[in-house]
Amino acid sequence: MAAAVRLRQRNLMDRLLNWYIDTVRSHFALHGLPAIKNPNVPGILSDLISVGNVLKRVLATLCDAWHHYMFPISFIYADNSNKDDMLARIRFRHSLTAMIDIALSDHEFQLMAHMLVEHHLTACGKHEENQMVDDRDEAQRLAFLAEIRQQIDVLQVQDRMERIVAEVYHKFIPRYISRQYARIWEQEQRAEPLMVELKNLIYGPITRCVSVLIRRDELLESRLYELVTECLVKLGIEEMFDIVIYFPDSIPALGYLKMCLKTQEHRAQLVTEFQNACHARLLHCGANTSDIISFYMSTIRAFKLLEPRGVLLDKVSRSIRRYLRDREDTVKCIVNGMLEVEDANTGDLSELGKELASSSGTQSADAVDDNGYSDMNWVPDPIDAAPDFRNKRSSDFIGSLLSLYDNKEVFVKEIVVVLANRLLDLKNYEIDREMMHLELLKLLFGESDLHNCDVMVKDILESKRVDSNIHDPTTVAPGTYPVAGIVHASMLSKLFWPAFRDEDLALPHVIEEQLNRYSAKFSILKSARKLTWLKRLGSVDVTLELEDRTLDFTVSPDRASMIYLFQERSTYTLTELSARLNLDEITTRRALGFWIKNDVLKEDESCNDKFILLERAEESKKKVLLDDAAESSVQTTEEKATEEMRIYWSYVNGMLTNIPALPIDRIQSFLKMLIPKEVGYSRNVDELRDFLTVMVAEEKLEYVSGSYRLKR
Amino acid sequence: MDSQNTTPTTFSSHKMQDAPTAMADSHSVTKRLQSELMQLMMSNVPGISAFPVSDSNLCQWTGTISGPEGTFYEGLTYKISMTFPPNYPYHAPVIRFVSPMWHPNVDMSGNICLDILKEKWSAIYNVQTILLSLQSLLGEPNNASPLNAQAADLWDGNPAEYKRLMMTHYKDIGEINDE
Amino acid sequence: MVQEGELPTVAVEHDPDQLDDLTILRLTQEIKDVEASKNPLVGDFKPISVLLDEYKDATFRSKIKALGGGNAGYRPVRGDGNCAWRAFAFRYFELLSKLSKEDIEASSKFLLSRTGILDAAGYSETGYIDFVEETSNLFQKLPDMTPEQLVSEFNNAEVSSAIIVHFRLLAAAYIKTHADDYLPFIDDGEGADISEYCNRNIEAFSVEADHLALSALVNSMTTVDLGVVYMDRSAGDEAIVHNFFPTESTVEVDPPSLKIDLLYRPGHYDIFYK
């Protein structure tokens, strides 16, 4: 019986609870929700401090509601020993939490919570940034967050808060890192100190801030740290191309990347990103070969630092190497670099020469143990090494460059040519530098391949001796004249030098005479041998004494002979010059170009192909001419634009005369299709719209329901 | 088999336009028409105009002709269609009046009798010369070989009646565009 | 089976009395096109004996036999109303192609300089320039062309049509600029109009060349002698040959003179090789 009464009572109690839950729900919907809705949220959202306050007030209201709704339950179902009472209390609390959770899922609340958390994280970042530690400030912020945390605990919506916090720091940290550390490579920040700084930030303010808001979690710190590492790796991967460009200033950045670059995925990503960047930014026809080569050298060094085994280097350099092989002037650039020749066309790669000097000693040692059998520190190649990966243990990039081609012969040929040119350009027979280079190159290519070069160098040495002999007044043979001192010749052993173009040149009479005397003397000294002059080779020091100025030049013999002719008279035609010098017209023109550029000659304005010596400089006049040209080119651009507009308008007019109304897309595609390529139509839709709007403003067109038509 | 469609004398304008002939070289026709359009647009002769119907097919144009001053057609505007064959300019385009046209040399379907569009066609003609010839045809019909005998009779015989009948057929170009 | 809707225009049987001009024109053109497309624009060389197989008629056969010595032959040209023009133009370039590069260049320079008479006759440059350009292009390619390439170039309708128009305009321009010489031939007693005549008989594409047109063409080019072998049913054992010589031949020796022969059978011209 008692059991029956209890059972009925129990039923009643259940029904009472159900009724109460319903009542609470409708009350909350009617009074609670409107109370937490902030009527002027949009205005408030712009102010972070108010956001915090509003958020706190919302939570406080909800806490109040919580206490009110909870109150009757706490004494009706007060019996802690009664299992039913316990269950009822739990059930009610669940339904209450669900209700409040739904209230908090409101967009505005989410937004405010995000802003609040982000604001505090940003404050942490700033705090770390300027080391003016303001602990009071942090304490204040933490106290504020603790209040929020209390309310969250009351409402038992910790899950929601945790989600929000996690979302925010996953957004905040990458942004923070890319803002703070992108494109900073030179500073020490990027290596160890950077990690310390970040660790301080993470384990310090951020962890403090986050852990006030959410339940303490041992994994939190390591999760945050992982996130930071991940972001830094991504940043490094994205910036690798620039890191290589700024090498060696960017070495600190590499140090850090090396620490973070652990997973296969990251390695693969690094290779792909770097290759893409190379293709987009370097391996195209706009880049100089010398720039590509020096970039390749930096790539070798940078990737060797990043991963000394060279697997990554092997992968990323394949496309660069392939591209370099296809370039015509690669060999020339490399050889010029090794011989430290500066050339406007091939750029400066003298770094190669220095590298040659410093590395050549170790080169042969490397070759001894290619398979690394005696290497006690040997470890297997990484798993992502390409099948044909060969471990090159030195960061020697000369070797890498030489291995671009299957045989070294291409280099040897080029070396002979470059060296020959250098030796011929010499004055005073000083060949110390060339001899040094040659010795270094011999170490690289072997003695036998460079035999020709040896002969060339010896020729110059021998020439020095012979030349001084010829000029020695004490050795004048009876019956001959002493040789005047201005001609110095190099005697070349024809077989060993590269082929010279066999071109003639009519030298000034005085010089020819000296050459003859030189030959005569030579045949006395070396009776078995005969001199054949290569008149186009060599260089001449020229001093021009003009009416108002004296100019010094070192020029080729053809240029010198040309200007010598102007001593006779001040005007020549092109044909006259080319006949007198015994040169073809193209070479003559080129020589003329040199003197015109240097304001020594000018082309007669009234008569083409007639050239006049400028006894007096004409600088001012020339300047005026230049200015004129600049001005007229500006004008034609404007004229062109006006002309184009006139054409476009006649098309639009013609179009709309025959097709009554057209939307802008159709007009655009008509213009694109119909205007002939010679005239060209390159405007985009927006530019067209601007143009049509002007036409509407001028009342030539009208715009009606999405289409343009002619205004009648 | 449908016997109507296979009769040897069958002619369908659809077939004519689409059938490729040995002369077809649509690229050079396109280029030619493009440069003719340019010429037409830039010369901007008042009273005549023409433009391709779509940007994908340059061989179909639509044109507008205003009646010359001092003729019955003064102040009126007519719409025409122009279809260029693939072997243009070696063969004449087919021109029709789309607007109803009451004229001695134009029939009720808009077909035109103009010698330069037929036996006197020459490759040196172009869109502009065609439009100008059509415009002058409005003022100077060839009444010797009319397609519209009534119009030919009234042209000289009864100008007032000519004008009246002509106007009963006239449709404003706005109305035609709306159709 | 013809599916409904495949042909948007309903085909109608044409009553011959009710055909309008336009349709007649189209139909004739269609028939011409069909007939012509069976033959290439410019065919391959054939020995003259091939003609014997075509004719039973004794007059023809004897005339053909009279022609048929040695390497004589002919090259068929499509009968599309442009045959005389196309035959002439092809043969002109074929003969030139056998000459030296310098001669070709001289001929090219000379022929293009004749463009002056087009201006004199009142043709606008924009009207003729496309066609003259095509001729000039061919001149430039000519020195490097094989005979096969030349044939295939002429079978490109785009090229040969343009050149034909150029030659037609030259002939028409010659007539217009020498109106007094030609007027008597054109005058049919009802008052003749030179420009009307040129328009209808020379400028109009696909209109066959008459005697006057050929004479004007030869006169306008001034470096070509033309012989036409008339292969018709007229009495005699040998075909009559009519020669056209330019009235004002060039004084300078620069562009070499050429001799072109055409074979005329009623209504049609082919190229004749002696």
From TrEMBL, chain B:
GO molecular function, a single term: ATP binding
Key word ATP-binding present: yes
Residue intervals of the UBC core domain: 28-175
GO terms of biological process kind: deactivation of mitotic spindle assembly checkpoint; ubiquitin-dependent protein catabolic process
Group of enzyme by EC: transferase
Alphabetical list of InterPro entries matching this protein: Ub_conjugating_enzyme, UBC, UBQ-conjugating_AS, UBQ-conjugating_enzyme/RWD
Entry's family note: Belongs to the ubiquitin-conjugating enzyme family.
Protein name listed in UniProt: E2 ubiquitin-conjugating enzyme
